[in-house]
Amino acid sequence: MEDRIGQSVRSALDGEPRVDAAPPREWPVLLDRTFGPDDIAVVRHEITRLLAAVGFAGDRQHGFVLAVNEVLTNVVLHAGGTGRVVLKIEDGSVWCVVTDSGPGIPGAYLDGLHTPEAFEVGGRGLWLAHHLCDEVTTATGPIGTSIGLRIIVDSAG
Description:
Blueprint: E1 9-11, E2 17-19, E3 29-35, H1 40-53, H2 59-78, E4 83-90, E5 93-100, H3 125-132, E6 135-141, E7 144-152
Antiparallel strand pairs: 1-2, 1-6, 3-4, 4-5, 5-7, 6-7
Helix pairs in contact: 1-2, 2-3
């Protein structure tokens, strides 16, 4: 397995993964909270409300919230059950960063390009995120994972 500690794998708009270890600069924060198994629906509704409040609605907003929901669910099911979610705005984009202290993501699921088989159990959360978001960043290792989901608000219709 490839060592990806301290790095992030990005899916650029052209779909080509690249490694980027540069940390993002600080952005205005809309939401910063911890979550557990009983909080997924609450966080999903809170993010939907916050996005609508900044004028981001419609199908792209719903897809983004679905991607966030999948990542939150992965934390609960596969990474110890609790995590942190931060929702930020930067230069016409919304970022949602979800972190956990789980064992890390297996390499087969990192690029988001593996299409899950029809009857395959699991493997759809990150795949969906890569298809619903304009950019997905991942930093993972044995002490936890951080996943960033970005969607461009300016192109929302």
